[in-house]
Amino acid sequence: MALLAFFVRISLNFPLNSDESNNALQAWDMLHGNVLLHGWILGDVTFYTFELPVIALTEVFFGLSHLSSYVASSLVYLIVVALAVALAVRRSDGAARLARCGVAVAILAIPLAVPYGLWVELGPPDHMGTSAFILVSFLLIDRDRVPRYTAPLVGVILCAGQLSDVTVRYVAVPAIILVSLYHMAVERRIRTADGAIALATAASVPAEIIVRAVLRHLGAYQMIEPDTGLAPPGKWAHNARLAWDVLRWLFGADTAPGTPLHGALTIAGLIALFVAAAGLVAVAVRWRTASRADQLLALAIVFMLGAYVFSNLPTPTNSHEIAVVLPAGAVLAARLLVPARIKSRFTAGAVVTVAAAAALVPLITACTFPRAAQRSDDLITWLQAHHLKYGLAGYWSAGVTTENAGGKIQLFPFAIKAKKAETYDWETNTAWYDASRYDANFVAIEAKFPITKAQAERVFGKPAAIGEVPGWTILVYHHNLLTKVKPAPLPRMD
Q1: 492 vs 8: which has the higher pLDDT
Q2: What is the average pLDDT across 452-464?
Q3: C-alpha closest to that of 158 among 386, 150, 307
Q4: HSE toward the beta carbon, residue 186, CA cutoff 13 A
Q5: Could you give phi then psi for residue 437, rounded to 5 degrees?
Q6: What SS3 string covers the chain?
Q7: Of the candidates 6, 105, 153, 483, which lies 20 to 30 Å from 176 by C-alpha distance?
Q8: How far apart are CA 119 and CA 195, in angstroms?
Q9: What is the rounded average pLDDT of the residues 21-32?
């Protein structure tokens, strides 16, 4: 509960954006009966089986509001942290468990004190929640005596994970199969718990494909096909350099000057990164005696970084693409630094104290940052005063305004291409553009985004009235603008 309170307070430092708000609108739709999200066009990651249900749960209590999104992102990260801690303390006892817990939480807390990196952990759904599927699968497999239900349960979890994020297929699935095959080879037996787990893991891939096909047949959401292509070999070295940059971002080791405790946090992030790397090397060195969890975590990190380096994903700031490396690295670091048992009471007390302090300092520091303002508050007030409910806006302005208004005002995203208005093809609902259902009679133009007043007037004509609020221009019309918004050509869909 204390960690959740910290996470909720820290999440308030991050201003909502339309990606996160559209996830909230999807969850709201699910909560009100559209469980299959009929009519929705989702991005290349759906979050359908984890983050969206968590958001829907928070909306039961807080309604459609920015608070729901903040609480949901905090709950998702809390679950990831709890699973990482559960893996870190495996086969330890007494003070060692507390110390390992402190180390794992500290490493997962350091990035929260980095303002520009906060969004990976507590921002919009974007791969960090995927770690939950991976970690819980590893936790189930890492047992001295594996119950019979473990293999089918792991298969179901991996199937659900792939339905939410294809990252699970390229990271968790090969890691589990390889570790299982290794232990089968060591035991020189096929009919073992490892064999059943390997079979269930492999079966999760076609199972997910079948489930997705059934969902499509039932009229469920469409999604943008994920980019799973390989980068040309000439880019691999460049991608490896970018991987090092985003790793430092991910672990909080690249703090901007002017941030409280700037130098100390940068050093702490670098230490966390190098200890995680040392934990990975230690598993490779003692592979034969390493636990299944250690082997799985090490391979997951290798596969995640490999998939990143050899793909078309790398950019200088997209550390969210390798988010699973952070909790996996935190577990390996905690298990490397703290032995399974600490005999000396003095040593135990010192280790626990240092670990607790290391966890609390970044959490408390992050709580000192100012809360982010919701930039559409003035716009919502103006629209409500003028009894305007449905309108158009650029993508990054539309969803966040709709969520902040609790759905009482709805802005539908659109784009202007070749002097024509088009629907938006990412995280949108096709029902929004039905002119027989909605009468959109204004355009809200946010100053810092690309759609301009002149562009809107060329497409929709001269407005009947123009309103101004700080950062916004509102063009009001006496006709339904949706009649002039044409369907955009869709990219490759899954």
Answers
A1: 8
A2: 91
A3: 150
A4: 11
A5: -105, -35
A6: CHHHHHHHHHHCCCCCCHHHHHHHHHHHHHHCCCCCCCCEEECCCCCCCCHHHHHHHHHHHHCCCHHHHHHHHHHHHHHHHHHHHHHHCCCCCCHHHHHHHHHHHHHHHHHHHCHHHHHHHHCCCCCCCHHHHHHHHHHHHCCCCCCCCHHHHHHHHHHHHHHHCCHHHHHHHHHHHHHHHHHHHHHCCCCCHHHHHHHHHHHHHHHHHHHHHHHHHCCCCEEECCCCCECCHHHHHHHHHHHHHHHHHHCCCCCCCCCCCHHHHHHHHHHHHHHHHHHHHHHHHCCCCCCHHHHHHHHHHHHHHHHHHCECCCCCCCHHHHCCHHHHHHHHHHHHHCCCCCCCHHHHHHHHHHHHHHHHHHHHHHHCCCCCCCCCHHHHHHHHHCCCCEEEECHHHHHHHHHHCCCCCEEEEEEEECCEEEECCCCEEHHHHCCCCCCCCEEEEECCCCCCHHHHHHHHCCCCEEEEECCEEEEECCCCHHHHEECCCCCCEC
A7: 105
A8: 39
A9: 96
What are φ and ψ of residue 149, in 5° steps? -80, -10
Alpha-carbon span 347 to 337, nearest angstrom: 13
Rg (CA), the chain: 24
- Check pLDDT > 60 for residue 411: yes
Tokens 């787990």: give the residue.
197
Separation of alpha carbons 72 and 69, rounded Å:
5
Confidence band of 115 (pLDDT split at 50, 70, 90):
low
Characterize the bridge pairing of strands 465-469 and 472-476: antiparallel
Q: What is the mean pLDDT of residues 405-413?
A: 94
Residue (of 249, 248, 292, 277) closest to 337 by Cα position: 277
d(CA 2, CA 240): 38
What are the pLDDT digits (tens) for 193-235? 899 999 999 999 999 999 999 999 999 999 988 877 888 998 9
Q: Residue 95: is its pLDDT beyond 90?
A: no
Give the mean pLDDT of 186-196.
Answer: 88
Which residue's structure tokens are 């309170």? 5
